[in-house]
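testing teh design pipeline on a random one, pls ignore if ur not involved
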């Protein structure tokens, strides 16, 4: 097994064991276990700042001793542990106002959760150019005029690119590197995962230049751009990986851990992540390295929750040569949400090993809670406060900061009872996030939260088991959030998008129908002008057995307000009853473009056209088919004189189409991608391997 596959497993296994230790015996300074009922209040959640490196190392040694004890118990079969792997940042997005290039020209940008808080993505546009990560490369393409869409330049990248930001003439690419042993870095990384920032000067779009490379020990979690400052959240497990000499040093033993290898950390380099800095210096790249965070900028939470390191790094793209600033908190990573002023990390508490007897689980399982850490943003990030709520969050849309308070939507899944859903309001008091108010009992028995959207003083929550209740919430009084109204319809919505103040667009899934196998993606329009009586205006199914990336990735959802136009990526098998859903030659994969007009009532969705990406993945001459890479993003660029173009991006190409007539292709450019194809021959489907550009 490769290091890429081993790393997450090792981090989770050891983190789980350590989590049990913290629950069972506690660490000095721990606030204790979560209460069995009621609010997780009045515990003091303020994190404690480390005084120096000696205190930090001593803490790591204490936790290591607990880890060694539990490792031995686990390997001998005398005990088991509980834990929770790092949650990844959730999906669904937000409304995006178009930016203006000039008096008339407009373009859409990345669909984000909070206005003014950009999110890293694999494609960005400034209305003139596209900046794309594809096939392990950074590409720049001319975007306007649409008929002149063309690749201008490309730069090879190290590792797996996961997202980029653009600020004026500076681009920064975030990549994940899984094989640390292959990196030419001194000293050798302790972590199995390394995150790399590649900073490029793109003033000359035909010849972008790498000016700086930063390497950080740890795994990428999330990133935001506020103004010129990029803020990255990384998770690092050196307290255990460093102890064992890195992932590659772990021998295969019972439980996957060598219990004899639990040597205590001796120095801060065994605890804190390191970073390496390579800067352009006349063509050469000298390397400097050091701790990614000063010991005095590390915090230990009051509620111990794992022994990893959550690192927040701030880099000002207005001055790419400036030193990054950082702070850190000890514990598990989690869901990341950001406003213009703060970053929040919501870390779920530990769970119980699944192979424990049910009776023992019910007797010993702690209540599900989420610990939330707030960091203030600015030139230097800083720890601000911590708090705790019952239940676990679904994704970043489960959190929202408004008028100085944080709203959090959670689902709690007790072992001996049905799930319960709630919205909790937290306010900062010193370094404590204190519960101001809560609303419980959302959903029918057995329902779980499927979608959330907070919009100012209003909130909308979708729960689902068999029926889709949409709950409209009045959050104007932080101390007394209220359920104002609800609407029950079949199916469920996963992403909710505001259209002005009166309407919500939603994408989700149809309810199961006994008369038809499978379910399909669908879009809905809700009238929420009256919170006490939300209503369904229109609903549109997106094809038989269809699915859309917009159901689980909000950046794939594109609503362009100036044109009242909705772009939804879809892969579907419809129109031909003989189509085989396992045969890629039978699929439509592209974008459905709708005009959206609430005044038309049930006909609010009018299909303007379909933009097909089939040409990027089929070869009719040799009868080769790439598996249908669905459209992942779409953008609008144009003006009143020249008209508008719709740009669609999939894993194998980018296409410009006429908005007036989406069937008219204006230009297209293939993107570098792995050359793995399906061979359709004699009614069978096989694969032909290879490597793309």
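output:
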């Amino acid at each position: 097994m490769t290091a890429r596959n081993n790393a997450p497993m090792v981090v989770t296994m050891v983190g789980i064991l350590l989590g049990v230790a913290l629950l069972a015996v506690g660490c000095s300074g721990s606030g204790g276990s979560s209460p069995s009922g009621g609010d997780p209040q009045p515990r003091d959640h303020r994190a404690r700042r480390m005084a120096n490196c000696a205190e930090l190392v001593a803490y790591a040694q204490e936790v290591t001793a607990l880890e060694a004890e539990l490792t031995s118990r686990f390997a001998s079969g005398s005990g088991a542990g509980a834990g929770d792997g790092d949650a990844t940042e959730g999906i669904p997005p937000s409304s995006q106002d178009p930016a203006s290039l000039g008096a008339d020209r407009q373009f859409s940008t990345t669909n984000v959760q909070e206005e003014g808080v950009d999110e890293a993505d694999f494609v960005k546009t400034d209305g003139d150019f596209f900046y794309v990560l594809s096939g392990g490369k950074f590409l720049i393409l001319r975007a306007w005029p649409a008929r002149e869409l063309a690749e201008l330049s490309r730069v090879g990248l190290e590792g797996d690119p996961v997202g980029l930001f653009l600020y004026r003439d500076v681009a920064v690419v975030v990549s994940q590197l899984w094989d640390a042993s292959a990196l030419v870095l001194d000293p050798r990384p302790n972590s199995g995962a390394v995150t790399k920032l590649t900073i490029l000067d793109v003033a000359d779009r035909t010849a972008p230049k790498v000016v700086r490379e930063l390497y950080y020990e740890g795994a990428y979690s999330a990133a935001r751009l506020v103004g010129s400052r990029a803020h990255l959240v990384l998770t690092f497990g050196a307290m255990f990986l460093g102890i064992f000499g890195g992932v590659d040093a772990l021998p295969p033993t019972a439980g996957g851990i060598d219990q004899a290898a639990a040597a205590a950390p001796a120095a801060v380099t065994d605890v804190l992540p390191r970073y390496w800095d390579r800067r352009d210096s006349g063509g050469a790249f000298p390397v400097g390295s050091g701790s990614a965070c000063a010991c005095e900028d590390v915090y230990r939470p009051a509620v111990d929750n794992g022994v990893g390191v959550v690192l927040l790094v701030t880099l000002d793209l207005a001055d790419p040569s400036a030193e990054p600033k950082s702070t850190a908190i000890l514990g598990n990573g989690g869901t990341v949400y950001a406003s213009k002023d703060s970053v929040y990390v919501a870390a779920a508490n530990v769970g119980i090993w699944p192979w424990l007897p049910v009776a023992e689980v019910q007797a010993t399982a702690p209540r599900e809670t989420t610990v939330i850490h707030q960091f203030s943003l600015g030139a230097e990030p800083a720890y601000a406060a911590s708090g705790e709520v019952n239940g676990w969050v679904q994704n970043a849309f489960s959190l929202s900061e408004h008028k100085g308070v944080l709203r959090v939507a959670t689902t709690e899944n007790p072992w001996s009872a049905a799930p319960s859903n709630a919205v909790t309001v937290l306010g900062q008091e010193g370094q404590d996030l204190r519960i101001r108010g809560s609303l419980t009992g959302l959903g029918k028995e057995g329902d779980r939260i499927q979608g959330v959207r907070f919009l100012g003083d209003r909130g909308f929550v979708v729960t689902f088991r068999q029926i889709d209740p949409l709950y409209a919430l009045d959050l104007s009084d932080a101390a007394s959030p209220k359920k104002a109204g609800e609407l029950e319809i079949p199916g469920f919505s996963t992403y909710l998008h505001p259209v002005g103040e009166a309407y919500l667009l939603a994408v989700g899934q149809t309810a199961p129908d006994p008369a038809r196998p499978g379910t399909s993606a669908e879009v809905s329009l809700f009238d929420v002008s009256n919170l006490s009586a939300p209503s369904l205006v229109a609903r549109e199914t997106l094809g038989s057995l269809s699915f859309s990336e917009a159901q689980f990735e909000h950046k794939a959802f594109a609503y362009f307000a100036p044109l009242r136009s909705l772009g939804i990526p879809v892969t579907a098998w419809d129109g031909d009853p003989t189509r085989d859903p396992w045969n890629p030659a039978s699929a439509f994969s592209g974008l459905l473009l709708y005009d959206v007009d609430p005044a038309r009532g049930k006909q609010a969705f009018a299909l303007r056209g379909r933009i097909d990406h089939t040409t990027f993945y089929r070869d009719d001459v040799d009868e080769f088919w790439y598996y249908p890479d669905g459209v992942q993003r779409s953008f609008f660029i144009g003006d009143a004189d020249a008209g508008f173009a719709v740009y669609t991006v999939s894993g194998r190409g980018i296409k410009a189409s006429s908005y007036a007539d989406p069937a008219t292709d204006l230009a297209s450019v293939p993107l570098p991608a792995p050359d793995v194809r399906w061979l359709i021959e004699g009614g069978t489907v096989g694969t032909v391997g290879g490597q793309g550009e």
